[in-house]
Design a protein that fits this description.
Oligomer: single chain
Largest sheet: none
Structural class: mainly alpha
Radius of gyration: 16 Å
Length: about 110
């Protein structure tokens, strides 16, 4: 199967995501140009930046929330990543509008 779940696949997948994220952040810190500027100024990526604090806070709880909802586990690591990511986007968006945005507005 495509991306069957096992410890090595999970470790390599997380490692690859970390390397890609590191590369993107390092490019941005040096001033992005060309292709990277186009990618990093994308509205979706900028939205992810806006809700990133919620993503940082809530990402650890996503597997437990998934399990608590009694959704059967997918046998594909890629599919689990997509499901977890969508759940994280929803929770982080709700957190942004209910908690973070009002707090930010009251401080300015």
């Amino acid at each position: 199967m495509f991306f069957e779940i096992n410890a090595v696949d999970v470790a390599m997948f997380k490692f690859c995501i970390s390397v890609i994220a590191f590369f993107m952040v390092s490019k941005l810190s040096l001033g992005a140009k060309g292709f990277w500027k186009l990618i990093l100024e994308n509205k979706f990526i900028m939205y992810i930046g806006k809700i990133s604090y919620g993503m940082y806070i809530f990402h650890t709880f996503i597997p437990a929330i998934y399990k608590a909802l009694n959704i059967p586990p997918a046998n594909s690591l890629f599919l689990m990543f997509v499901i977890y990511f969508i759940m994280l986007l929803i929770i982080s968006t709700v957190s942004w509008y209910i908690l973070e945005k009002p707090i930010n507005n009251s401080c300015s």
